[in-house]
Amino acid sequence: MANGILVIVEQNDGKVSRIGWEALAAGQELGASLNVEVHALALGQNAAAAAKEAATAQIKSVAFAENKELAYYTPDGFCAAAKMFIEKTSPAYVLAGHSYQARDYLPKLATACNRPLIGDCIGYRNEGGALVFVRQAFQGKINADYSFLPQSGAPHFVSFQAGAISSDKLQRGGSASVAEAGLDLSGVHIRTKVLEIFEGVKGKVDLTKADIIVSVGRGIKEKDKLSIVEELAKVMGAELAASRPVCDDGWLPIDRQIGSSGQTVSPKLYVAVGISGAIQHIVGMKGARTIVAINKDERAPIFDLADYGIVGDLFEIVPALTAAIKEAKGA
Ligand code: FAD
Question: Which residues neighbour 253 within 8 Å (Cβ) at sequence distance 6 or greater?
């Protein structure tokens, strides 16, 4: 694998997570751009099953480690395992999705390897064979370019924001080789112990898994009017989401907020109703495959991003849309 790309694929009990697929898609893109091979590593309980799944992506090989030291995620265990594998294989780039887990162990891993990390990237470009990565700064107000200095040496550590490179771009139909990573972690000092794993908020909505999202903004004006948007979401089989002011006012729970201080989503369809398109909102939904915006202000920034825009009063458009969908469904 020397000089190739190593993707650390996040998995949960044998299933590659969405951000894991996105990291594989990023690996494929970077691999094609640099004309190098792409390999993957899955760590943790049932990583072998996840590795088999990951091997369906068009990449060269997938290694897995299910050592007892990795039964539960710990930064010490994952960092030690990944470092050992990196030392064995000498990749040029190490990629991961910028998940909660990755933000926990990846800086530690890069530091342990004495290398810098460019984290939470939203894009990249190839400038004459050198990769330039784009990150946001100042709460998404500006984008900034980052590159590794030549003297920093391989491997280069990079993580991509959820939705930055859609898993829809993943090239499947591969038949990568799958092998146990062969790591001896018996001497690794793991300083934390997982006592219990539980859902952060009971019944919390995971909008990251939704295919269709109807999202409502301050244009709805008052809580009592939300029902028209709820009805649209219902007929579309969509999850309901919101911009921050709607959640700040307590009209919808905070776990439905999309944006820099909410969830980052990449559904197939995102319908933004009465949302202006502030940067803090856009960072959370720009990864949607198709964006439809309904806004009475034709100059609203959301239209710069939208694939389809409807300029008009949401109180007329949303009920009409709901009725049309119901009719089309024969309901
Ligand atoms: P507005 O900007 O007020 O837009 C309302 C829109 O509705 C307007 O474009 C208007 O033309 C339209 N409208 C009004 N009436 C109608 C009608 N009858 N029919 C059709 N359209 C109509 N925001 C987030 O969303 N998520 C975040 O995670 C987030 N995090 C933040 C973090 C920080 C540190 C800061 C400073 C801000 C954050 N914000 C976040 C807030 C963000 O800056 C915006 O204020 C917010 O996104 C605006 O929400 P909005 O589009 O619903 O409201």
Answer: 247
* Residues contacting 81, CB < 8 A, separation 6+: 43, 65, 67, 69, 70, 181, 183, 185, 188
Instruction: Dump the DSSP string for 230-251.
Output: HHHHHHHT-EEEE-HHHHHTTS
Q: What is the pLDDT of residues 287-308, one digit of tens each?
A: 899 999 999 999 999 999 999 9
**Token pair for residue 25?**
């898609």
Ligand 1 lining (C-beta closer than 6 Å): 139, 217-219, 243-245, 257-262, 274-276, 278, 280-281, 284, 294-297, 300, 313-315
Q: How far apart are the C-alpha atoms of 257 and 212, rounded to whole Å?
A: 15
Q: Which residues of 205-227 are buried (b: 16+ CB within 10 A; e: fewer)?
A: eebeebebbbbbbbbbeeeebbe
Q: Which atom of ligand 1 is nearest to the CA of 242?
A: 25
Report the interhelical angle of 314-329 vs 226-236 (nearest 10°).
Answer: 30
Peptide bond into 75 cis (omega under 30): no
**Other residues' Cβ atoms within 10 Å of the Cβ of residue 193:** 7
Atom of ligand 1 nearest to the CA of 262: 28
CA proximity to 5, closest of 80, 84, 90? 90
* Structure-derived torsion over alpha carbons of residues 144, 107, 15, 7, reported in degrees to the nearest 10: 70
**Each residue's pLDDT tens digit, 43-71:** 999 999 999 999 999 999 999 999 999 99
Global pTM value = 0.72
What's the CA gap between 255 and 10, in Å, rounded?
23
**CA dist., res. 185 & res. 206, Å (int):** 34
